[in-house]
Amino acid sequence: MNLKKNIALSDSGFLFNPSSGDSYSVNPIGIEIIKMMKEGRSNKDISKHILENYAVDEATVEKDYYDFLKMLEQHKLIQKDEQ
């Protein structure tokens, strides 16, 4: 899944979707994830980064990261990869 190109992210963690006018806030780890998504990094790379930089186990990263992605998808902030 890829973050939609028109989604804006502030340094303080506010996401803005200009297509809908909706805005959201994310925590510091969410900011890191969004920035890595904007860079085009893979889900595997993002998960690895979180594991290496935070005191968290792999099962927790997998659950929380994919829950976060699902939330982004529900709010129409990401789109599925084009096949």
CATH-assigned fold name: Arc Repressor Mutant, subunit A
Q: What's the mean pLDDT score?
A: 91
Series of H and E elements: EEEEHHHE
Q: Count up the domains.
A: 1
* Helix segment tally: 3
Helix/sheet category: alpha+beta
Strand order of the largest sheet: 2-3-4
Apparent shape: globular
Kindly provide the name of the CATH class.
Mainly Alpha
Q: What percentage of amino acids are in beta strands? A: 15-25%
Rg of Cα set: 12 Å
Number of DSSP E strands: 5
In the predicted model, the low-confidence regions spanning at least 5 consecutive residues are none
Through-space gap between termini = 11 Å
Q: Please describe the biggest sheet, giving its number of strands, its sense, and whether it closes into a barrel.
A: 3 strands, antiparallel
Give the helix proportion (percent range): 40-55%
Helices and strands in order:
Elements: E1 2-3, E2 8-9, E3 14-17, E4 22-25, H1 28-38, H2 43-53, H3 58-74, E5 78-79
Antiparallel strand pairs: 1-5, 2-3, 3-4
Note the main attributes of this structure.
83 residues, single chain, 17% strand, 5 strands
